[in-house]
Amino acid sequence: MNQHVTAPAETTDPVPVGAVPAEDVVRLVDLKRRFGATAALDGVSLTVRKGEILGIIGRSGAGKSTLIRCLNGLERPDSGAVFIEGREISRLSERDLQPLRRRIGMVFQHFNLLSAKTVEENVALPLKIEGRPRAERLARAAELLQLVGLSEKAEAYPASLSGGQKQRVGIARALAARPALLLSDEATSALDPETTRSILALLKDINSRLGLTILLITHEMEVIRSIADRVTVIDAGRIVEEGAVWQVFANPKSEITRSLLGGIRPQLPPEIASRLAAGEGVETILRIDVAGEAARGALLSDLAAAVPGPFRLVHGGVDHVQQQPVGTLFVAVPGADAGHLARVTAFLKDRDARVEVLGHVAGSV
């Protein structure tokens, strides 16, 4: 489905040998951008491989919008390099950027459809701007509307569509020029949860069918969990964590990542958390994080058999992320026997579990 667009030979800059492997659609190298005293991007380096879905997540003001504007050439970095399909774009003229921009499709939060044009005309607009023949534009629009499940809406106007339908039109329009990269900028944050799930399923299906590389910008971890292969966490213009989604969910290393995960990972119930104290208590509360093989076995049953003595599961559960089990369990261990607590902790760590002592409570929970 992809169509390669080659810039005129006289404007092509040489790419340093080994700068960008052929399988990398995007590579950012030490990207920096300041606005006055504020560092919007402060040394960002990342790679988006061909055919993958990379999620970039961070709070408002983290630098996500500046990053995406550098990717499509709307913002010039102060220093660093932006490679798209092996070509460094950050120093190109506006004229030379045009063919490269056609290799990048954009999906926006608020759809950005033209109200005076039909659905079919909105989808075909990028091809009209390119000067493609009308018959080709209409054929491509029909193909894409079928792909996003809106063939029957070709002659409708945006005002008659639901939010989810408008976003499907936006996705179809972004695919019109057969891009190598699809940028999704908070594409589901204006939608209700059910519609969000359907749009994410559509993006995953497009990725699978077309082998299209997708870069998601979001502030919602649920979006990352649903479809991303890898996640990059950005805060104050810096990458603070990155990796396979299930691994980051299982063992978040930065405080910002733990905070972003707070809404979708099991948390200690407030009535127990409010009773935690640092000193001794009747029970010690452990947080146990497990993933992969460690989460597949009968961990607590094996613990009971191997380490005689009392403990209780007070909260938690096991989820699946990227077909990998990821679990968080909260266990209460009587606090009078320090040796028993040490044996429990040692057994869990031997099973590749991450164990954290959250505190102690004065009575049973």
Describe, in plain words, how this protein is organized in 3D.
- This protein has helices spanning 64-71, 94-101, 119-130, 134-147, 163-174, 193-210, 221-227, 245-250, 255-261, 270-273, 293-296, 299-306, 338-350; strands spanning 24-35, 38-49, 53-57, 79-84, 87-88, 104-107, 181-185, 213-218, 230-235, 238-244, 283-291, 312-321, 324-334, 354-361.
- The chain has 365 residues and is of the alpha/beta class.
- A hairpin with a 2-residue loop joins β1 and β2.
- α5 runs parallel beside α6 (193-210).
- The longest helix is centred in the middle third of the chain and has 18 residues, at 193-210.
- Mean pLDDT is 88; it is low at 1-21.
Which SSEs are present, and which pair or pack?
Blueprint: E1 24-35, E2 38-49, E3 53-57, H1 64-71, E4 79-84, E5 87-88, H2 94-101, E6 104-107, H3 119-130, H4 134-147, H5 163-174, E7 181-185, H6 193-210, E8 213-218, H7 221-227, E9 230-235, E10 238-244, H8 245-250, H9 255-261, H10 270-273, E11 283-291, H11 293-296, H12 299-306, E12 312-321, E13 324-334, H13 338-350, E14 354-361
Parallel strand pairs: 3-8, 3-9, 6-7, 7-8
Antiparallel strand pairs: 1-2, 1-4, 4-5, 9-10, 11-13, 11-14, 12-13
